[in-house]
Amino acid sequence: MDRRQFFQTGAKAAVAGAAVSLPVNTVQAADAPAARPAAGAFKTPAILVSYTAEDHRRRLANAGICTQKIRKCMRKHLITDYLPAQCVYNMGEYPSRAPWEPGEYDEQELDRLKDHGIQLIHVMDEWNDRYGLFGRNKLTAVNPEGFRRFVTMVHQRGMKILAYASSGYFAGHDPDYRKEWSRPGDAIGGWWDLPRCSPASPGWRAYFLPRMVQILEDYELDGLYNDWGYVPNAQKRIKEPAADEMAVFEETPQYDGAVTDLLYLIYSEVKRRGGIYKMHADRANEPQTGGLKVYDYLWVGENVENADGLRTATRNHTPYVVPCIQGTSAKVEGESEHFLHSIPYMQFPLLQGGRPLTGERAVIPIPRLPGVEEHGFYRAAWKYYQAHPNGPYVYGGWDPIPPNPGMRPAHARWLKQYLPLVEDGTWAYLEIADSDLFAAPLPTDCVASVFANRDLHLVLANYGQSPQQVQTADAYVPADEPAASPAKQWPLPKRSLRVLRYSV
């Protein structure tokens, strides 16, 4: 069967855009736009409109305790404008036989995510048409009207939504792509066919930036998610510049000049519109910008080897960090491992959700790349889905195969404890080194952090392989057991985490 026949067959068979079966009916949802504030509309922090005098008294008293008792920590941070409950939503397969359409499954899944506590949805590359299968490209929607319906569905539930738009990767087979934008050999090849476009290329900037703005204009999004597609100077192996590249910025292992300039232009445009800007960097990389703020959230964890290494590398990254340990490349010990390494450092893991990942994209003929097949993760996902059509499901490229069905309940359980720690106006003291909070020194391999708002929370983590005992100077109760008797002795099993609330 040739490619044209393949897509024609799939289009005829698809019902409401669903190329494969889903666990519930996928009948198209009614296109019923709802009135809502403009994307990124100004929102007054709770402390300014809802705090009573008693709330302020408690917050100030807890801040005073920290000022008095904590003498040294790795970092002190005032938390504002923070949405830690984030989910990457699998919209459907791409490449695919037919464009994805929002339906009843998405209505139900978004309800589940709202009940879970999710505040922000971001969609990956599946929203766009990077292979031109349906007459569009990497910076336009596969299904514009369907995508607008989905955005409305997210907004109706009080959540925000970001869409993928890479400032570095572009499809090498796209007729708009120009080789002079990229350094020779600087690309992700094979099935992906994604050259990296130089941040110092004026031609690439002139092409990408107006289209990035147009994405915000066309779909009433709350911001952008940028898979920045750049190798930091400290890791560069390709030295030959792009033909269309201007060497006007300082470039050192400690400072990425051109990418700093480009990222700041993007960030300021998104913020000018009141939006949210989230970035993704490989491994534990952080943009080397000389202290200039160029993002609201940084997603890390791709291709890391273990959770300890990710924690060590990102523990003092510029806030806010969204860690996600890639299950296909790193072994995770138990359902709470993600939270053990993140919560003490004012981080919270990304949740994967949306539609089940069927892996159908691995068997779709890809135009302009004849003979290239995907034999990796998506091929494995395809085989897994064929054997397990009723779940448990894989939802994205960071999920292990087979998936861990306990991860979603664990995420909800820890999120419920985390959100009170990081409400607007919280003073966070990360990795306490010298204080009067403990009756005895912290054991080896144990870390403590404090979060002070209307309540005072102490977070204890044991990263060692042996159980430990922590003795606090004051009494606390477990955050997940508010009726428990106050205590000062806290056993910590190996590789474990506890969230405690100060007992007045």
Radius of gyration: 24 Å
Going by CATH, what is the homologous superfamily of the largest domain?
Aldolase class I
CATH architectural category of the largest domain: Alpha-Beta Barrel
Distance between the termini: 72 Å
* Estimated structural class: alpha/beta
What do we call the CATH topology of the largest domain?
TIM Barrel
Binned strand content: 15-25%
Question: How would you describe what is shown here?
Answer:
This protein is α/β, with parallel strands linked by helices and 504 residues long. It folds into two domains: 3-29 and 83-418, Aldolase class I (TIM Barrel, Alpha-Beta Barrel); 46-80 and 424-502, Golgi alpha-mannosidase II (Immunoglobulin-like), CATH 2.60.40. The chain contains eleven helices and 19 strands. It has helices at 3-13, 46-49, 53-69, 104-116, 144-156, 202-219, 257-272, 307-314, 337-340, 377-387, 407-418, and strands at 70-79, 86-90, 120-123, 160-164, 182-188, 194-197, 223-227, 251-252, 255-256, 276-280, 297-300, 321-323, 351-354, 426-435, 446-452, 456-462, 468-478, 487-492, 496-502. The strands form four sheets. It has an eight-stranded parallel sheet. A seven-stranded antiparallel sheet has the order 1-14-15-16-19-17-18. Strands 5-6 form a two-stranded antiparallel sheet. Mean pLDDT is 89; it is low at 1-41.
